[in-house]
Structures are given as C-alpha cells and as structure tokens.
Amino acid sequence: KEVRVFAPATVANVACGYDVLGFAINEPGDEVVVRHSDKPGLRITKITGDDGKLPKTVEGNTAGVAALDLLRHLGMTDRGIEMEIHKKMPFGSGLGSSAASAVAGVYAVNKLIGEPLSKLQLLPFAMTGEASADGAYHADNVGPSLLGGIVFIRSNQELDIAQLPVPKNLYAAVVHPDIEILTKVAREILPKEIPLENATQQIGNLGGLICGLIQEDYGMISRSIHDVIAEPRRQKLIPEFYKAKRSALANGALGFSISGAGPSVFALCEGKDTAKKVAAAVSKVFTDAGLGNQQHVSPI
Ligand code: HSE
C-alpha cells in the first residue's frame, strides 16, 4: 500500500492576524509519499526539489519530525515506514513551505496506518514538525494547510481554532519574488513591545476582517487589511514592497500585505479577473526591478 499526499501553501497573518490567521491557496504545495516497509522504524528514502539542502534523516525535515511525533504518540515507532518528500516550493518563501511538508508528512502516515486520528487531531504533530524548522509554535500555516480555507487561531497554546466562512468571490493574488527570508530572522526584527495605539488598531482590523468575511462585506474586508505591527518592520527585507503595494491597490486589490514572514506578498481581491490583473501588476514591479518571481491566483 502506498499513500500520496499533497499539502498546499498558505498565506499566514493575512495582514492583521500575526500568528493567528492564515488561509490555504491551491498551489504550490509539497508532496509526501509513504509506504509500508519490512524494516522497522520511519525512514526517509528520497527527497526531491530541495536542491540537496535537506538531510535524509527523519529529524532533519519537518515532514519526518511531524510523522515521528505522531508515531511516538501512538506508541508505533517500530512500524516500518518509508517516506519520500517532494518539495515543490522554495524554502524561506513566506508561503508556509515547512508547514506544508509537516502537514503532508503527518497526514500521509496517519492515513497509511488506518487513520487512527482525525484531521484536527493531527494539528499538534504538524505544529511540532514546523517548529523544528522555525523555532516557533504557531498554527497559522499548518492549520489552513491541513484543514483548508481560512483558519483563525484564538490560542496557539490551547489550540483553540475556528474555520471561517469565505465570500464566494474572494480570491488571493500571491507573488513570490526570488529571494529567501528566514522566518527566524523576520521574527527577530519584530518589537517585543508595541504602543497601545497600534494594538488597538490591529485588534480593530482583525475583528473587522473577520466580520467582513462572515457578512460577505468586501468594503469591511478592504478597510481591515492593514498591519501596523509586522509589515512596517518586515517590508525592509522585500525590495520594492511599497511600489508593489501601490500597484496592487491601483489595480483594484481590496488590500495588500506580506505573506507570512515574506518575501512573498499577497492581495485579496473580489473576483478572479481582478486577482489576475493584480498578480500581473505586482509581478511586473518585481520584474522591472530585476527580481525573478512567480505568481499564483487562487480562490480562498
Ligand atoms: N506567523 C508567522 C510569522 C508566519 O509571521 O512569523 C511565518 O511562518
């Protein structure tokens, strides 16, 4: 028996929801293949698409760590399982690459051994997998990669989460400029303390965004996509960020910000045509600056 699983990329934070909000996009994503083996224990037999960066040890990548954490929990570390990891998106892209691998790894192994746990129950193991790469425990990438749609996390510690409804015509335009930003570094440049005024603005926007999604109020969604905490600091790591933002808004985006820790950027748009136009306009800004990039347009 062989199980092949695809886990999608994700846009975390969604501007105002640092570490507590994220959504899945259709592509790119990572793939994991698992099969039974006579040799006891979990082994990584093949990794592709990583430019040789990942060691072939179970502990050396998020898919292996997440799957092993699940097997430990179930007391099944003796099970013979072979795992292949096919990376289909770059590291440090801001698209939840390590999260997608962790989700695909733990989901595939759970399926191979007869699905003892539900999707939701797999979340903590996927989080442990991702934390092995970026040192932080947050579900805003693994949550939506595992469950789909937009996921709100009231508490990462208690894992209190909710899937939010999404207006039918809401699309994401995502552009990934070809530079690498390590999540660890992008987290270190954030302030430990923020002014009360910024906290109030951010809470208002997060509440507004959630209300807008529930009430299908594109105006409210648009007025709420602002990040006054991470974006002002992190934009320095992304060439032409404000030019790209101006271009997205001029082409009809509801809002624009950094995807996760960057360098990818995203816009929310009403309608697929607008999202395509916005993705092309943002892509052009990076291309004109001599930066290669990839665009993705996806319903949410
Ligand atoms: N919420 C995380 C951050 C996502 O912004 O650092 C990146 O993995």
Please mark out the parts with pLDDT under 50 across 5 or more consecutive residues, or reply none: none
Strand tally is 10
Structural class: alpha+beta
What's the end-to-end separation, in Å?
33 Å
H/E series: EEEHEHHHEEEHHHHHEEHE
Amount of helix: 25-40%
Residue fraction in strands: 25-35%
Topology of helices and strands:
Layout: E1 2-12, E2 21-36, E3 42-48, H1 62-73, E4 81-86, H2 97-112, H3 123-134, H4 142-147, E5 150-155, E6 160-164, E7 170-177, H5 183-188, H6 196-215, H7 218-224, H8 231-234, H9 241-250, E8 255-258, E9 265-270, H10 272-288, E10 293-299
Parallel strand pairs: 3-4
Antiparallel strand pairs: 1-2, 2-4, 2-5, 5-6, 7-9, 7-10, 8-9
Bound molecules: L-homoserine.
The site of L-homoserine (HSE) has 13 residues, from helix 5.
Please provide a written account of the structure.
The protein contains ten helices and ten strands. The chain is globular and about 60 Å long. The chain has helices at residues 62-73, 97-112, 123-134, 142-147, 183-188, 196-215, 218-224, 231-234, 241-250, 272-288, and strands at residues 2-12, 21-36, 42-48, 81-86, 150-155, 160-164, 170-177, 255-258, 265-270, 293-299. Strands 1, 2, 3, 4, 5 and 6 form a six-stranded mixed β-sheet that branches. The protein has 300 residues and is α+β, with helices and mostly antiparallel strands. It starts with a strand and ends with a strand. The structure holds L-homoserine. Residues 12-13, 18-19, 134, 138, 140-141, 183, 186-187, 260-261 line the site of L-homoserine (HSE).
